[in-house]
Amino acid sequence: MRMSFSSQRWLRVVLIILLALAVLLAVALAWALPAPLPAISSEIAARQPDPEHGRYLAVAGDCNACHTQPGGAFFAGGRALATPLGAVYSTNITPDPDHGIGRYTLPEFIRLMRQGVARDGRRIYPAMPYTAYAKVKDADLQDILAYLQHGVRPVAKADRGSDIPWPLSIRWPIAFWNKAFLDDRRFKPDLTRGPVWNRGAELVQGLGHCGTCHTPRGLAFQEKAVTNSSDLYLSGAELDGQSAANLRGNDWTGLKRSTPADIVQLLKTGRNRHRSVAGQMAEVVEFSTQHMRDADLFAIATYLKSLSAASRQSGRFVANDVTARQLESGHLPNRGARIYIDSCAACHRYNGQGAGLTIPNLAGNSAVLHNSPDTILSVILGGARLPSTAGEPSRTAMPAYYWRYPDKDIAELATFVRNAWGNRAPAVSEDQVKDSRKLVLERVRQQH
Ligand code: HEC
Ligand code: HEC
Ligand code: HEC
C-alpha cells in the first residue's frame, strides 16, 4: 500500500511519541526500581540474636493473623486478604528453604520488612503491612528473623499467587507507590516525652501496625498519616464492612472517656465497661494483644491517650432516661423501638446498658456513635462473637438478624439505637443497609 506524505508524517510523530514514552518509563523505572540491600552496622553484625524475644515481637506484630490460614499449619501462609483489586494470599514464612524463608539473610529480611521487596526482588503488595514494620529497629528485626528461622517448624507448602487480574497484577508499579507513599525511616523517639510514651508510640506505629486499620486511606489506598503528624492518624477508617474505631481523644467516638486501665482491659480481653470488640479487632486481641506484657499495653494506652481529638466525628451522648421509660411503659416512639423490644432488649435491656462485661452497653458506645454505621450494621446483620482470652474466656455471642428483617426495618432499628438513651448519631439509610448486607452475606457464605 502506498502511503501519502501526511500519513507517513503522522506515523513518524506517533513513533516519536511512543519512543519518548518508552524512554520516560525507562528513566522512571531506573529511578524507582533499585532497592539495594541495607547495610548492617558492625554492632548488629556482632550481636547475638535472641529468638525468644523475636517470638514475643512476632506476637506483637500479629504475623499469625495473616500468615496462618484458619485450620492450616502455623505460619505456612495461604490466608486470603481482600484488596480492592482482588484477593492476595499471605506467604509461607516457616524456615522451609524452598517454600518458606529459610534462605533469607538478615539484610534481605530487613529490606523485605521495610520496603516490601522479597529475596528474589519481587515487589510485595502493601497488604503486608511493611509501611508500619518499616519503623521497627534492626535489632528487633534480627530477633524476629532468628525466631522464624530457628523457632518455627518448617512446612513444605508452596505459595499461591493472587486473584488480581493481569495487567493489574504486574508488581513493578508498586515501586512507584513506595516512592510516593512509603516512609521507611525508623521510629524516632520524641525526647520531650517519657520512655513509656515512646515505647507505646514505637509499638503502635511499628510492629502493632494499628494505623493500617485505624487510619483513613486516600485514593491510592495509602494511609493518610503514619505518625501523629496529622489528626487523621488513628482517627478511624472503613474496613470491609466494619469501621475501625477512632482511637484519638474525641469525647464519645474516641478514647477520651477511657482510662489507660480501660484500654489495657480492652486489649487484654476484648471488652471493657464502655464497649466490646468484634470481627477484625477481636482477632487482633485473640492473636496478639492479649499475649502482650501489661507494661507494653500500658505504654500503648499512654500513647493513645496523648492523641488530640480528630475533627471529623460528630456522634454525641448526653445520658437521659427517656428511652428506657418509653420502652418500659410500652409507649414506643417508632418502629425501630418496637424491633428493639422484640429482638434486642432481652440482652441489652431497656436501659441499653447490657450486663457487665458479657453484654456490651449500647448507651454512649463508641461503636454505635461512630460516624459510619458500618460496625453497628455488620453486628446486627451478621452477629458477633466476643474474643476468648485468658482473662475473659467466655465467647458470648450475639445472633445474626440478616434473615429476620428487611433493609427498611434494619435501617429504622439502627437509627433508633443510634439515637436512644441520649445517643446522637446520624440516621442510617436503607441503601447503607443494602451495602452492608451484601458484605455480610458474602462473609456468611464463606464461613459455610
Ligand atoms: C495484614 C496481614 C499481614 C500481616 C499482619 C503480616 N503479613 Fe507478612 N505478608 C502478608 C502478605 C499478604 C504477603 C504476601 C504479599 C504478596 O504476595 O505480595 C506477606 C509476605 C511476607 C513475607 C515475604 C515472604 C516471601 O515470600 O519472600 C515475609 C517474610 C513476611 N510477610 C513476614 C511477616 C512477618 C515477620 C510478620 C509479623 C511481624 C508479618 N509478615 C505480618 C500479609 C501480612
Ligand atoms: C485488622 C485491623 C485492625 C488492627 C490491625 C487494629 N485494630 Fe483496633 N479495631 C479494629 C476494628 C474494626 C475495631 C472496631 C471493632 C468493633 O467495633 O467491634 C477496633 C477497635 C479498637 C479499639 C476500641 C476503641 C474504643 O472506642 O474503645 C481499640 C482501643 C483498638 N482497636 C486499639 C488497637 C490498637 C492499639 C491496635 C494496634 C496494636 C489495633 N487496634 C489494631 C481493627 C483493627
Ligand atoms: C443473645 C443476646 C443478644 C441479643 C438478643 C442481641 N445482642 Fe447485641 N450483642 C450481644 C453481645 C454478646 C455482643 C458483643 C459481641 C462482640 O462484641 O463480639 C453484642 C454486641 C452488640 C453491638 C456492638 C457493641 C460493641 O460494643 O461493639 C451492637 C450495636 C448490638 N449488639 C446491638 C444489638 C441489637 C440492635 C440487637 C437486636 C437486633 C441485639 N444487639 C441483640 C448480645 C446480644
Dominant shape? globular
The first-to-last residue Cα distance is 63 Å
Arrangement of strands in the largest sheet: 1-2
Poorly predicted regions are: none
Number of strands: 8
SS-derived structural category = mainly alpha
Q: Describe the biggest sheet?
A: 2 strands, antiparallel
The total number of structural domains is: 3
Bound molecules: heme C
Fraction in beta strands:
under 5%
Count of separate DSSP helical elements: 20
Radius of gyration: 25 Å
**Element-level helix/strand string:** HHHHEEHHHHHHEEHHHEHHHHHEEHEH
Average pLDDT level? 93
Estimated helix fraction: 40-55%
Which features would summarize this protein structure in a list?
Cytochrome Bc1 Complex, Chain D, domain 2; binds heme C; 8 strands; mainly alpha; 448 residues; globular; 3 domains; 20 helices; two-stranded antiparallel sheet
Can you offer a commentary on this structure?
With 448 residues, the chain is mainly alpha-helical. It has 3 domains: 42-181; 195-305, no CATH class; 318-447, Cytochrome Bc1 Complex, Chain D, domain 2 (Orthogonal Bundle). The protein contains 20 helices and 8 strands. It has helices at residues 5-32, 42-46, 51-60, 63-67, 106-115, 130-133, 138-150, 173-181, 195-205, 211-214, 260-269, 279-287, 294-305, 322-329, 335-343, 345-348, 366-369, 374-382, 407-417, 430-447, and strands spanning 80-81, 88-89, 237-238, 243-244, 316-317, 384-385, 397-398, 423-424. Strands 1-2 form a two-stranded antiparallel sheet. A two-stranded antiparallel ribbon has the order 3-4. A hairpin with a 6-residue loop joins strand 1 and strand 2 (88-89). Helix 15 packs across helix 19 (407-417). The longest helix is centred in the N-terminal third of the chain and has 28 residues, at 5-32. The protein is globular and about 80 Å long. The chain starts with a helix and ends with a helix. The mean pLDDT is 93. The structure holds heme C (3 copies).
